[in-house]
Amino acid sequence: MALSDFYSNHSDYRTRLVLNTRDSKGDVVGAAAAALDLIKNAQVRAIIGPENSMQANFIIDVGKKAQVPIISFSATSPSLSSIRRPYFFRATHDDSSQVKAISAIIQAFGWREAVPIYVDNEFGGGVIPYLFDALEEINVRIPYRSVISPEATDQEIEEELHKLTTKQTRVFIVHMTPILGSRLFDRAKEVGLINEGYVWIMTNGMTNLWSWMDHSDMESLQDAAFALVMAVEKLNNANFSFEESKAVGSARTDLESLGISQNGPTLIQALSSTRFKGLSGKFEFVNGQLEPSVFQIVNVIGNGEKVIGFWTSKYGLVKKLNFTNLTRYSTSRANLGTIMWPGDSHSVPKCKRLKIGVPVRKEFKEFVGVPPGSSPNSRVNPTGYSIDVFEAVMKAMPYSVHYDFYAFVNTNGEAAGTYNDLIDQVFYGKYDAAVGDISIIANRSLYVDFTLPYIESDVVMVVPIKNNSNKNALVFLEPLTGDLWVTSTCFFVFIGFVIWVLEHRISEDFRGPPSHQVGTSLWFSFAILVFAHWERVVSNLSRFVVIIWCFVVLILTRCYTASLTSLLTVKQLQPTVTNVNELLKTGENVAYKNGSYIRGFMQQLNFNSANVKTYGTSDVLDELFNRGSASDGIAAAFGETPYVNLLLEKYCMKYTTAGPTIKTGGFGFVSL
């Protein structure tokens, strides 16, 4: 009908197209067989088709071999486009041309994540790399890809949709065939993904879910036929013969016996130069493809649809195709009409707000502090170092993340369990993540994921410092041994005697009564300690001895000072226990922080459970240390370095660390 109307309106045309139709029955093999039959037996000069991208790949290569142009009106996969396929012409827009329109819509509403749902074949997968690139340009993250087989059952589709309900993303981009898409939306409705808060963006392959071929495909088909008519008319008296293959007799396959169209090269040149205004808009092939122009944006409401705007490559989102006052590209949502969102809502769906669980504790609020009186289902505003780190990371993200903090408490406002219990709630889905001073250990990583550690956390042993308040009054003698004291004294006397021998005959300072000479000689030797001697040394030999003695005295005083300083300070920091084996041998009581994973660590060290106690605050720990192991107290405690550092800051003169340091994973945040 369309060709008859065309020729009636163009009676001056001297050529006529003769149509040879074949039905592929929607099958890839059937389409290949139909194309071979048309080229080999009917010797057609061009093929309008195939029906879809899956059928196109083989037929395009066959057309190239026989020099028969393949003009497709519905094969939209971008992967079909190639400079190595000169005989393929696409009389419709490929799917990659619409990804900019999709990204403009997402950018207009400020969504930061989107999940593509596409069919697992040539049609579905061809557009995905282009979609990823377009979304990456506007900093939109794709956390997950939902790939559905063309032969998927309703149950398999529903299982895939259930996976989407566990994700944070509420924005979905659907790219598949209409028949599979209709089944997808039926299952999505059953699962609850068509409710308020969700967003579904469909590509033009899903524009009409209720018909096998919408009017845009019909327009593309007619435009393709018109373009071929015009191209053939340009050739006029061209050679339309078909050269038989030279391998007809010896050919073992239909491909080997294909003939070659003599007018193929000139026909593709004529098609490339054909330009007209068709039913679907401006029609002009550029490298065998139609240039993208305008996409209509529709809001699907029930069984109907409403046009809410348009997208153009030059001006972006526009409400009407009136470009008079437009000067630049825009992605403003104000350029779109009113939208009815899923759930009959007029409110723009926002990204899912993460529910973040935070631990509650009475001590060490420097890491996490929760306001008192918090309830399990109400949002809180925690404070502390861990919270500051988490919020700094969220601000540094290239996209916005919405979240709320919830205290892990029971109805009485008290902690609802241990840190393991909090992690279990993340695993069970009560919380999307957990933030706090949560230790990264192997058995926890079996169920949840941890971030990289934001602070180191090792297990150390804390013990009291020895009480050295009753020191010996002669402690100043301890830096040197008795032999060294005697030797040093003898050398002082000897040096005094040597100086007296060398100086008393020539220096008046060393003369006088015997008692004066003895006193002066000893004074001179000892005064060198502080360089306070005033006697003149005349003899050069005496001066040489004094130089050597000054050097010896300098070394001796420095060593004495260093040793005495060490004795007066280090002795005060000596631990009462130096290793774990001492505690195990003597059966001393030990303790760990209430609810900590260190309990399992102490069991591995073979501590008797009767000797293991717990503490909740640093004050309780101090009281246990003061009572001592003999009075139902403790001799040592085990803790993680961040907590131990805070304890030592508070009781720096009473406790210290001892024994080996056991490396752990540090503190991190938890998610699934």
Explain this structure.
- The protein is of the alpha/beta class.
- Helix 7 packs across helix 8.
Give the termini separation. 60 Å
- Overall structural class, as computed from helix and strand content, comes to alpha/beta
Count of individual beta strands: 26
Q: In one word, what is the shape?
A: elongated
Q: Identify low-pLDDT runs.
A: 208-213
Strand order of the largest sheet: 17-18-16-19-26-20
What is Rg?
A: 45 Å
Biggest sheet statistics: 6 strands, mixed
- The helix tally amounts to 19
- Percent in helix: 25-40%
Measured by DSSP, the beta-strand proportion falls in 15-25%
Please name the defining characteristics of this protein:
672 residues, alpha/beta, five-stranded mixed β-sheet, 19 helices, 26 strands, 35% helix, 17% strand
